[in-house]
């Protein structure tokens, strides 16, 4: 068992090194005063200054954050109601069919989803830009929220709902005072995951964005095609730090919810 344990640890260490070494390499050279990634000449913050002094880049950053927040909030609200509707479907075949359709959207290639949205918006007459990107991000985030919320709903005992109904609670009270508080960890998980996916998405956004509107992922791609500069390193580092903060925030809220649940149960 000891050898297996050591082998497993070594394997995980190699995997993490392969995954994170390029990221830390990129972050390290974002502080290079030499302007290249071939040799480190000295420490500087000028590349970060270039990021924050670029008005167009700041506007694109604001676009990305606004789209991510709005799409995550909308997807969370719709996804939570969708997950509740799926759980309470009485027909098992219908429930499995809806779940299968939801899972297909998650595993479908982003290129297919992006091309489908592009065709849809062209047919409907929606101008490519903020609205098209927002709608697309909401659409591909909803299945993610559903998947994150479903386990909490499935582990919830029906006796809780029956007890609330016996005490005279209305359907609205059961939803807002019993179901929502119980599945709150899943809601937070779905929101943070949808937010991360929206901030990170490139393939779908590339298809549905238009002239005059862009997000960071598309902008970084355009900048990289013109030639790699350390400004891209600095921008990528900032995105990585923000994403890391979101992950830490998710675990913080998740751990806090678990501690609250344990405290309430012990009382």
Walk me through this protein's architecture.
The chain is mostly helical and 267 residues long. The chain is 82% helix and 0% strand. It is built from twelve helices and no strands. The model has no long low-confidence stretch (mean pLDDT 84).
Quick recap:
The protein is mostly helical and 267 residues long. Helix content is 82%, strand content 0%.
Helix share bin:
over 70%
Q: In oligomeric terms, what are we looking at? A: single chain
Largest sheet: none
Q: If helices are DSSP runs of H or I spanning 4 or more residues, what is the number of helices?
A: 12
Gyration radius from CA atoms, angstroms? 23 Å
Termini distance?
40 Å
Tally the beta strands.
Answer: 0
* Structural class determined from secondary elements: mainly alpha
* Shape field: globular
Could you state the order of secondary-structure elements as H and E? HHHHHHHHHHHH
Mean pLDDT: 84
**Portion in strands:** under 5%
Describe the structure using short key phrases:
single chain; 267 residues; mainly alpha; 12 helices
Topology diagram in text:
Elements: H1 2-29, H2 46-53, H3 55-87, H4 92-107, H5 110-124, H6 130-155, H7 158-166, H8 171-182, H9 184-200, H10 203-208, H11 216-226, H12 230-266
Helix pairs in contact: 1-12, 2-12, 3-6, 3-9, 4-6, 6-9, 7-8, 9-12
């Amino acid at each position: 068992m000891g050898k297996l344990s050591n082998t497993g640890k070594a394997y995980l260490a190699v995997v993490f090194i392969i995954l994170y070494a390029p990221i830390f390499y990129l972050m390290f050279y974002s502080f290079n005063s030499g302007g290249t990634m071939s040799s480190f000449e000295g420490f500087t913050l000028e590349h970060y200054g270039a990021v924050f002094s670029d008005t167009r880049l700041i506007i694109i950053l604001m676009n990305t954050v606004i789209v991510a927040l709005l799409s995550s909030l909308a997807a969370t609200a719709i996804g939570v109601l969708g997950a509740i509707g799926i759980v309470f479907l009485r027909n098992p075949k219908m429930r499995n069919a809806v779940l299968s359709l939801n899972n297909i959207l998650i595993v479908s290639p982003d290129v297919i989803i992006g091309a489908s949205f592009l065709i849809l918006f062209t047919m409907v007459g929606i101008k490519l830009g903020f609205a098209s990107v927002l709608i697309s991000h909401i659409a591909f985030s909803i299945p993610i929220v559903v998947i994150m919320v479903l386990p909490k709903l499935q582990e919830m005992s029906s006796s809780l709902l029956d007890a609330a109904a016996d005490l005279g609670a209305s359907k609205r009270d059961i939803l807002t005072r019993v179901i929502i508080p119980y599945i709150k960890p899943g809601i937070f998980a779905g929101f943070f995951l949808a937010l991360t996916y929206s901030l990170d998405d490139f393939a779908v956004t590339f298809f549905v964005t238009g002239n005059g509107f862009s997000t960071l992922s598309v902008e970084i791609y355009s900048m990289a095609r013109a030639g790699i500069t350390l400004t891209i390193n600095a921008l990528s580092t900032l995105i990585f730090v923000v994403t890391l903060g979101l992950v830490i925030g998710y675990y913080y809220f998740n751990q806090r919810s678990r501690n609250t649940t344990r405290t309430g149960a012990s009382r």
